[in-house]
Structure formats: C-alpha cells, structure tokens
C-alpha cells in the first residue's frame, strides 16, 4: 500500500499527511481551498524543520518527504489512485457522510476508506457506501507527528483483513495502534470528554478556579496539562460536539454538556483557535494567561 489520500488540510489532515509522506508513502492532500493547502504545506515544512533541529530528521529526508506530497482541490482527482483514503474533515456528521458518498464513487474499488473521526459512528459512515467492509476508523492524536497512538475503530461490518492491514500500516508509521469497537466516543473520548466536562462543571459550580483545577490535575494526577487548558487546545466547539454525540448515543445524563461550555461556544470563545477560551491565547507569550472572565 503506497498511495494515500488525505481529505482535509487542517491541523489533523496536514499532520496525517506529514507522517505518511515521511514514512515513504505517496500522499495526495485534498482540500477545496487552495490557500488552506498552501498553508498546510508551510506547516508541514516548519514541523519537519523542528525535527531537523532535534536531530531526528536530515535535510535530505525533509526534501524527500515534501517531494512525496501533492495537493488537489478535486476529490475525484486526488483519490483516483489511492490504496487508502483518510478523511480528516471537520467533526460534522452530515459533512462526513457526504464525503464518504463521494469517496465511494471515485476511489478505486479495492481502496480502504478510513475516517479520523473522534466520536462519530464508523458503522453509520460505512452505511452510506457500497463497501462497508472496507470502512474503518483511524483516530490519530494531535499533534500527529509526535503522538504515538492510533485508535483503530472497527465498524459493524469492517472486515478482519481490513482491520489487520490498518493496524500494520499504523505500525509502519511508528505508531501504536489499539483496536476498539464502534460505540459512541470509542475509548479515548468516552473517558476524556467526561473528565473535561466535569472540570468545567467544577468551575461552573464554583468549586475552584481555572488555574486551581488545572494545577490539581497536573501535579496531583501527573497530567501534562490540565483539562481546561487541554479543552482550549482541542477546541471547545469540538468538545461540545463530542459530548453531544455521547449524550445522544448512550442516553445517559452524565454526558450532558455543562451549560458554561454551551454558553462559551455560543459566544465564540472556542479556545486557541479563536484566541480565547479558559485562557487568553492572543498575547504571543508562552506563559498561560487566564481569560479575563475567569480572573479573580
């Protein structure tokens, strides 16, 4: 399997394209927006430079990696020779279903169709295609070039052969694949999102402030960053969308999103991507700065 197509050139898409290209695969990076593709290539170049600075990559390897990347604004053109397609579009059900309908129409009959979704049912996605046995989840973690885990999600109809091929492919990327079944939130977000939601509830109910909550989890539980800081990095809109999938899919009130989270998303306070969430991200400093609303 040498030809890979990646749908979406945002943070996850360019990271996925980066690791495949670095490990010898020919990669078609696809986005409807050429400016987004240009930005993605620039980001990949900067991330490769960081690897060079750390001594984990040579200049020649950077050149080879970039040489394996080709950009397309047409899905049909980009996937026509793909052995594997990895969809990394926004976490929106209808958008993903429409993408998979298009992929099923244009990708070669033998191609595996994978989604990087962090919560949406692989079974539901597969059902809109004529090849459900070849549809699977490949949930990479952010930042993709650094994080080792790939959560491999089997849909109801995903074949053993496809699952094993994707597990092996993940190992070729230097990742550690973990096979899970297709239930809301899978494993990563079924555990992570309720923790983030509970941290937001603790803030909402006045148990403690933003810094205090994050400090407890960093120093007491050895987390590399606190749950509120992590929520800002993930995107509060993404956290809300995943919690709604969990709440609807499992029918349990414990997954209901905190009203504070709902209000922040409604107000456009989405975290790093908008410049403000629980912290302020627009000051250019590496130090954590609380958003004005949460300062004492």
Outline the fold blueprint.
Layout: E1 3-7, H1 11-22, E2 26-30, H2 34-54, H3 59-67, E3 69-72, H4 75-79, E4 84-87, H5 93-106, E5 112-115, H6 122-126, E6 135-140, E7 149-154, H7 160-172, E8 176-181, H8 188-204, H9 210-221, H10 227-234, H11 236-250, H12 259-266, E9 279-280, E10 289-290
Parallel strand pairs: 1-2, 1-4, 2-3, 4-5, 5-6, 7-8
Antiparallel strand pairs: 6-7, 9-10
Helix pairs in contact: 1-2, 8-10, 8-11, 10-11
How do the strands line up in the largest sheet?
3-2-1-4-5-6-7-8
The CATH first-level class of the largest domain comes to: Alpha Beta
What structural class results from the helix and strand content?
A: alpha/beta
State the fourth-level CATH superfamily of the largest domain: NAD(P)-binding Rossmann-like Domain
> What's the architecture of the largest domain, going by CATH?
3-Layer(aba) Sandwich
Shape: globular
Strand content: 5-15%
Largest sheet: 8 strands, mixed
Bin the helical content. 40-55%
Indicate how many domains the architecture comprises. Answer: 2
Distance between the termini: 56 Å
Mean pLDDT: 96
CATH topology of the largest domain: Rossmann fold
Number of strands: 10
- Total of DSSP H or I helical runs spanning 4+ residues: 12
Stretches with pLDDT under 50, minimum 5 residues: none
Q: What is the radius of gyration computed over CA atoms, rounded to a whole number of angstroms?
A: 20 Å
Following the backbone from N to C, one meets helices and strands in this order, namely: EHEHHEHEHEHEEHEHHHHHEE
EC number: 1.1.1.157
Domain 3-hydroxyacyl-CoA dehydrogenase C-terminal: 185-281
GO biological process, one term: fatty acid metabolic process
Family: Belongs to the 3-hydroxyacyl-CoA dehydrogenase family.
């Amino acid at each position: 399997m040498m030809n890979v197509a990646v749908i979406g050139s945002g943070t996850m898409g360019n990271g996925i394209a980066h690791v495949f290209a670095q490990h010898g695969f020919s990669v078609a990076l696809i986005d409807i927006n050429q400016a987004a593709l240009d930005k993605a290539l620039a980001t990949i170049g900067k991330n490769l430079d960081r690897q060079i600075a750390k001594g984990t990559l040579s200049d020649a390897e950077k050149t080879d990696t970039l040489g394996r990347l080709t950009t397309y604004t047409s899905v049909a053109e980009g996937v026509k020779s793909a052995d594997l397609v990895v969809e990394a579009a926004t976490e929106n059900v209808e958008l993903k279903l429409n993408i998979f309908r298009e992929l099923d129409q244009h990708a070669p009959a033998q191609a595996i169709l994978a989604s990087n979704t962090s919560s949406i049912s692989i079974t539901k996605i597969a059902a809109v295609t004529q090849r459900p046995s070849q549809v699977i989840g490949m949930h990479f973690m952010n930042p993709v070039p650094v994080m080792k885990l790939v959560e491999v999600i089997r849909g109801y109809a995903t074949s053993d052969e496809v699952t094993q091929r994707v597990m092996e492919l993940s190992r070729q990327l230097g990742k550690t694949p973990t096979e899970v079944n297709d239930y809301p939130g899978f494993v990563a977000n079924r555990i992570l999102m309720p923790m983030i939601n509970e941290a937001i509830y603790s803030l909402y109910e006045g148990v403690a402030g933003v810094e205090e909550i994050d400090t407890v989890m960093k120093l007491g539980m050895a987390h590399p960053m606190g749950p509120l800081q992590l929520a800002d990095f993930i995107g509060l809109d993404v956290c809300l969308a995943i919690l709604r999938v969990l709440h609807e899919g499992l029918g349990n009130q414990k997954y209901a999103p905190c009203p504070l989270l709902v209000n922040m998303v409604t107000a456009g306070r989405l975290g790093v991507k908008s410049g403000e969430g629980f912290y302020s991200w627009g000051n250019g400093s590496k130090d954590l700065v609380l958003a004005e609303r949460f300062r004492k």
